[in-house]
Amino acid sequence: MDPAASLRFKVLLERERDRAKAQISRPLPTAMTSPQADALDCAADLSLWTVAQATYLVARRRLAEAEVALARLKAGIYGICQSCSREIDPARLEILPTATLCVECQKKAEKAQS
Ligand SMILES: [Zn+2]
């Protein structure tokens, strides 16, 4: 990967990492603590909390993926498929900068999972 491209991906990945970090630091909604809360309030709180927790988990995963990609970039192995060691299509990295597998290996991995 040429230096200009790797710099561009570095910026993309850092932005992704910072966005995920910001999401993680957002506090969870105050859940069901009010003594006046009725069942409906609790239900509303619970669904807010569920959404917030799911968002949090997704953000945690995105943060981890961005950090792995940045470490790989620093090590000079960014954009190399972890499975077959071939170069990942740059068009794929544009869409998914944290990809660690090429399209073929990703497909194989997904098949193996299902
Ligand atoms: Zn591959």
Descriptive report:
- This protein is an all-alpha fold.
- The protein has a single domain (3-113), classed as Four Helix Bundle (Hemerythrin (Met), subunit A), CATH 1.20.120.910.
- Helix content is 68%, strand content 0%.
- It is built from four helices and no strands.
- It has helices spanning 3-25, 39-75, 90-95, 103-113.
- The radius of gyration is 19 Å and the shape is elongated.
- The model has no long low-confidence stretch (mean pLDDT 91).
- Residues 81, 83-84, 86, 101-102, 104-105 line the site of zinc ion.
- The site of zinc ion has 8 residues, from helix 4.
So what's the CATH class?
A: Mainly Alpha
Overall residue-averaged pLDDT value: 91
C-alpha-based Rg, rounded: 19 Å
Shape descriptor reads elongated
Order of helices and strands: HHHH
The percentage of residues in β strands lies in: under 5%
Number of domains in the coordinates?
1
Q: Structural class, from helix and strand content?
A: mainly alpha
CATH architecture: Up-down Bundle
| Annotated CATH topology | Four Helix Bundle (Hemerythrin (Met), subunit A)
